[in-house]
């Protein structure tokens, strides 16, 4: 299983028989080298979207059309895109599980907001979400954009993820200290990978507080377009 950071909250996950692009924001992403776009999306089989904000959904429609691959995500947004943009989609909702190339993906709650940019202001884009991705003997918790929430308690107990991909940049989401607290209190991760940081000066630039807050846990600071084998 391989995980490659695309910057911000974007990842390329190679798991089971799938190559899943999670929240692929490439165009205009200040930390992604745009000359490596083809490499980042090569062979992708699915797109998995946590919510509608442009720094997560930015390249979703373009990639879905270019590669003719389905977008999986919250029913409201995906069903709208299927109708309006003629893409393939897998719309589901919290508590639902879908099979993406042998990986079992369950949508779970997040605490944030979700919208698309419109001419007259934000447009409703369904609810924000996170995911539990099970495959190859692992369960990966993709937090999406969220703060700490009590739901993490049952989510950790029920799904027992061993890998956490946690938003941790602060301002719009949990910061590093809050992410460390959530990981300690609600989960038993072996590996934690921070995201939603370094992109802009407004966000945290270092994962030191996360590392210091999780003794005994492998905290991996990802590098853009450098694959991590898990």
UniProtKB/TrEMBL annotation:
Lineage runs: Bacteria, Pseudomonadati, Pseudomonadota, Alphaproteobacteria, Rhodobacterales
Q: Does the keyword Lipid biosynthesis apply?
A: no
InterPro entries, from UniProt? Answer: Metallo-B-lactamas (IPR001279), RibonucZ/Hydroxyglut_hydro (IPR036866), UPF0173 (IPR022877), UPF0173_UPF0282_UlaG_hydrolase (IPR050114)
Question: Per UniProt, which keywords does this protein have?
Answer: Hydrolase
Q: Taxonomically, which superkingdom?
A: Bacteria
- Protein name, UniProt field: UPF0173 metal-dependent hydrolase OU682_00990
Molecular function per GO: hydrolase activity
Which Pfam family is one of this chain's hits? Lactamase_B_2
Q: Which family does it belong to?
A: Belongs to the UPF0173 family.
Q: Which PANTHER family is this protein grouped with? A: UPF0173 METAL-DEPENDENT HYDROLASE MJ1163 (PTHR43546:SF3), UPF0173 METAL-DEPENDENT HYDROLASE MJ1163-RELATED (PTHR43546)
Question: Where is the Metallo-beta-lactamase domain positioned along the sequence?
Answer: 7-196
Hydrolase as UniProt keyword: yes
């Amino acid at each position: 299983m391989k995980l490659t950071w695309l910057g911000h909250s974007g990842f390329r996950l190679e798991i089971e028989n799938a190559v899943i692009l999670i929240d692929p924001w490439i165009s205009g992403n200040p930390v992604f080298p745009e000359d490596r776009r083809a490499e980042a999306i090569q062979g992708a089989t699915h797109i998995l979207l946590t919510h509608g904000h442009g720094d997560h959904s930015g390249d979703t429609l373009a990639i879905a059309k270019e590669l003719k691959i389905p977008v999986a995500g919250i029913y409201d947004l995906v069903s709208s895109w299927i109708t309006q943009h003629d893409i393939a989609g897998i719309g589901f909702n919290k508590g639902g599980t879908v099979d993406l190339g042998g990986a079992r993906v369950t949508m779970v709650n997040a605490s944030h907001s979700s919208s698309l940019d419109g001419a007259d202001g934000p447009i409703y884009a369904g609810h924000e979400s996170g995911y539990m991705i099970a495959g190859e003997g692992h369960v990966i918790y993709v937090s999406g954009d969220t703060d700490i929430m009590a739901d993490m308690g049952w989510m950790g107990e029920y799904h027992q993820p061993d890998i956490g991909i946690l938003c941790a940049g602060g301002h719009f989401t949990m910061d590093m200290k809050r992410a460390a607290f959530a990981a300690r209190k609600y989960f038993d991760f072996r590996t934690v990978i921070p995201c939603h940081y370094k992109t802009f000066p407004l966000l945290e630039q270092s994962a030191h507080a996360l590392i210091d807050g999780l003794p005994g846990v492998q905290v991996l600071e990802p590098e853009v377009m450098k694959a991590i084998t898990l």
